[in-house]
Design goal:
alpha+beta, 17 helices, 4 strands, globular
């Protein structure tokens, strides 16, 4: 009863009548008189307004948490009126335990709603009533959050994760900012920027749901050939469509190697990783082991660039670890410890211990 007394006091004395939750005038007047008279909490039990007070208290509890709007037509009207993006919370059918957890841990939390309400239009929909929207935005897994542009373009889809609402809010705001930055850049059509900026936009675009923007920026970067990053992207795109020894592919690779805007060891590692991944996909008999490019890189750069050579060795060890060849993985880690920078040795020793433990279990 004490908690009821405190909540009602807060509702009467602190909450403005203009807000969504306001007491009926007669009940407000009566309760104000009761509180002013200094009634003890236990005396509420015998008061004539007790039942009405309890009903209102339960209503207050339901309205004190943030509530996502559920009116679809109104939400789309607001999008057109304000030109804000739309954030839709898709819930599963009634009784879905994941959706109930999603509702409790995320949607009902004030922090998430407060972070988003000024930046986007919010809408909550449930199955099966939301079947049309689910089909429209190709939503097949519930619950989830879908970010939609004013043009109806899906910006991002986020599955439910048990993390703080503030974290989810920050991620959504960052994703919205990223989308509008990338979209504005592509639509204005001027790609004459330095490679670092274009690369940053490309990396941002790759995180978006629609691959169009990343593809467009990459194409423009390849046309300019302003640095080794986009020359490498050109080499990659050719590798996906032509044999590795095709003249065009070899010419593109040579162009990457001849570009002098990055350390030779950095460029060589990039190409070694590309070759490693390419060979990992090849099943033709007689093909060199996929780790060969990485091992050749280590042999050449272990003295002049031990940092990147250690990275290459870790990739080799990781390859054998995933193949459950723990002995080979342990051997490569032990070799890496011979030339690795001091700051990386603790991590390598921990990995080596893990491998030794797996060997003991075999």
């Amino acid at each position: 009863m004490r908690c009821i007394h405190l909540v009602i006091r807060k509702l009467i004395l602190a909450r403005p009548a203009s807000q969504s939750l306001c007491l009926p005038p007669l009940l407000r007047q009566s309760l104000t008189q009761i509180l002013a008279a200094g009634l003890r909490p236990c005396q509420f039990l015998n008061h004539s307004l007790y039942k009405e007070l309890i009903s209102f208290f339960l209503l207050a509890l339901s309205l004190l948490s943030f509530t996502w709007p559920k009116d679809e037509a109104k939400a789309f009207f607001e999008v057109g009126k304000t030109e804000k993006p739309l954030v839709i919370a898709f819930l599963g059918a009634e009784g879905c335990s994941s959706s109930q957890k999603f509702q409790k841990e995320l949607l009902s939390q004030d922090s998430l709603g407060e972070m988003l309400k000024d930046k986007a239009v919010l809408l909550e929909v449930s199955q099966p009533q939301a079947a049309r929207l689910s089909h429209l935005f190709n939503v097949t897994q519930f619950p989830c959050l879908v970010l939609v542009d004013t043009d109806g373009e899906v910006i991002d889809k986020q599955r439910f994760q048990s993390v703080a609402p503030e974290v989810v809010g920050v991620e959504i705001v960052q994703k919205l900012n990223c989308f509008f930055r990338v979209k504005a850049f592509v639509e204005q059509g001027d790609f004459s920027v330095d490679e670092k900026e274009l690369q940053s936009l490309f990396e941002s675009a790759k995180t978006l749901h629609n691959p169009f923007y990343a593809k467009k920026i990459c194409e423009e970067g390849i046309k300019t050939e302003i640095g080794h990053f986009f020359l490498t992207q050109k080499y990659l795109s050719l590798l996906y469509t032509l044999p590795w020894n095709h003249p065009q592919v070899l010419k593109a690779r040579e162009a990457v190697l001849n570009k002098q805007d990055a350390p030779a060891s950095q460029v060589a590692l990039t190409l070694a990783v590309i070759d490693f991944k390419r060979l990992s996909r090849v099943k033709t008999p007689g093909t060199p082991p996929s780790v060969t490019p990485l091992l050749e890189y280590v042999k050449k750069y272990r003295t002049t660039d031990p940092e990147r050579a250690t990275t290459a060795k870790e990739m080799v060890a990781g390859h054998f670890f995933l193949a459950k060849e723990y002995s080979l993985a342990a051997t490569h880690i032990a070799e890496a410890l011979e030339f690795a920078p001091e700051r990386k040795k603790q991590e390598l020793r921990a990995f080596h211990t893990l491998l030794q433990d797996n060997l003991c279990k075999e």
